[in-house]
């Protein structure tokens, strides 16, 4: 497994009064903002923010699952390895 270069979870999505949703680290740092545009509904803005906020936890759990599968001699689906590589920018 590669060393973590992203802000580790947990992260949270907080709705703001101006229609945006901030994605924040546990320490309160704003990592990003999902905002309503003419192409995104309020529901999509919120869903995007929740997915973004959950991404560090999902990556960690997926990496742990790969380790367990390898220990059991199971084949890890290529799509799983590709998703981890995409998230960690490893070839």
What does the model show?
This protein has 91 residues and is an alpha+beta fold. It has one domain. Helices cover 45% and strands 16% of the residues. The chain has helices at 42-71, 78-88; strands at 11-15, 21-25, 30-34. A three-stranded antiparallel beta sheet has the order 1-2-3, covered by helices on one side. Strand 1 (11-15) and strand 2 (21-25) form a beta hairpin. Helix 1 (42-71) packs across helix 2. The longest helix has 30 residues, at 42-71. The mean pLDDT is 83.
What are its keywords?
3 strands, alpha+beta, single chain, 2 helices, 91 residues, three-stranded antiparallel β-sheet
Shape: elongated
State the distance separating the first and last CA atoms: 12 Å
For the residues shown, what is the average pLDDT?
83
N-to-C order of helices and strands: EEEHH
Strand elements, count: 3
Global Rg: 16 Å
Given helix and strand content, the structural type is alpha+beta
**Biggest β-sheet description:** 3 strands, antiparallel
Lay out the secondary structure:
Blueprint: E1 11-15, E2 21-25, E3 30-34, H1 42-71, H2 78-88
Antiparallel strand pairs: 1-2, 2-3
Helix pairs in contact: 1-2
Compact summary:
Helix content is 45%, strand content 16%. The protein has helices spanning 42-71, 78-88, and strands at 11-15, 21-25, 30-34. Helix 1 crosses helix 2.
